[in-house]
Amino acid sequence: TMPDDDITHPIPDLTGYITEGQIVLSRDLQRKGIYPPIDVLPSLSRLMKAGIGEGKTRADHRPVADQMYALYAQGRDLRRLVAIIGEAALAADERQVLAFADRFEREFIGQGQTNRSVEETLSLAWELLADMPAQTLKRIPQKYLDQYHQKPEGNRS
Asked: Does residue 40 sit in helix, strand or coil?
């Protein structure tokens, strides 16, 4: 525990340098019934960079993770905006990102007691990204979009 959940407090902050990263738990996710309630945005791993990608997990791992985190961060920002102006004031693409953030929490973070392999996790990531138009997935190289991305229902040709 830390004073007022402040991860910048010297003790938890320094712990992240002693260990190889930090896992930040979220009271908000816990209140929503998301388990494990891991707040992925401030959590970090110093070992991940060297431990993922072609020959280790899968070649698309890093760009997919980066894209998922970017969309989730956008969705969380939009939630704060919705609290002020209401969801009706959002553009269609913003509502899509907001829906992605909700699914990301429920289905990706919230895995309960289920053990998922890296392969299953990446497949789930692509399933969540399928709701997003390819042109919004700017962090993923085209070759991976061609290989894994399914077009949203409304955009199938």
From this structure: coil
> Using one digit for the tens of pLDDT, what is the confidence trace for 85-138?
999 999 999 999 999 999 999 999 999 999 999 999 999 999 999 999 999 999
CB 111 within 8 A of CB 34: no
Strands (E), the chain: 21-22, 44-45
Question: Do the beta carbons of residue 141 and residue 63 sit within 8 Å?
Answer: yes
The verdict on 35 and 96 lying in the same domain is: no
Domain of residue 39: give its range.
Answer: 1-46
* Maximal CA-CA distance, the chain: 54
Rg over alpha carbons for the chain, rounded to the nearest Å, is: 17
Measured from the Cβ of residue 34, the count of other Cβ atoms closer than 10 Å reads 20
Structure tokens at 99: 């829906």
pTM of the predicted protein model: 0.86
Partners of residue 38 on adjacent β-strands: 25
